[in-house]
Amino acid sequence: MPAVIYERSVYQPHEAELQLELACVVKPHDEDSCSTPEPISPERMQMANAGILYLSPILQQLYGLQKGPETDDYGRLQPTKHAFGKAIDLLVNAAIDAYPRQIPSGCVSTDSEGGVRIEWVRETSSVHLVVPATNSSESYVYHEVDNNYATEDATSESLSNWLKLIADGP
């Protein structure tokens, strides 16, 4: 006697579930993705609202870019997931490395591909943190003091050291 399988005994997913599964299979899940970043974690949001002198406003600028319009006529306005996370990690670790000195106030922007740029500009010196949109290029620190300028790989230590030079600026 053949076994009869009733329709109710076999799980049949709804159309929305099938579409979600298909999207997960088709969509690549790599770190180089330029897709819209995931929601901000509560821990990172607490850092932005912690009132840490100069660091919290920089983090708030980053979060503001992430929550703003995705693109405009010139390209991407929101930082990519890679650039967003890497910039936060570098800033927080530089602040830890610099302690008890403070990270000076700076200005945050994105490039047309969603990479992050943070600038600390003073009268005779400047430091620029450049984090590309994907991990296919390395992050770097561009620094200029008087007429001397150079670039180097972005690490929390290098960023902290160069920011030390302009920490006492206006």
Helix fraction?
25-40%
Number of helices: 5
Strand order of the largest sheet: 3-4-5-6-7
Q: Count structural domains.
A: 1
End-to-end distance: 89 Å
Order of helices and strands: HHHEEHEEEEEH
Radius of gyration, taken over Cα atoms and rounded to an integer in Å: 22 Å
Number of strands: 7
Whole-number mean pLDDT:
78
SSE-based structural type:
alpha+beta
Sheet of most strands? 5 strands, antiparallel
Oligomeric status of the shown chains? single chain
What is the approximate shape? globular
Strand content: 15-25%
- Low-pLDDT regions: 5-14, 24-34
What does this structure look like?
The chain is of the alpha+beta class. The chain contains five helices and seven strands, in the order H-H-H-E-E-H-E-E-E-E-E-H. It is globular, with a radius of gyration of 22 Å. The chain starts with 14 loop residues before the first helix and ends with a helix.
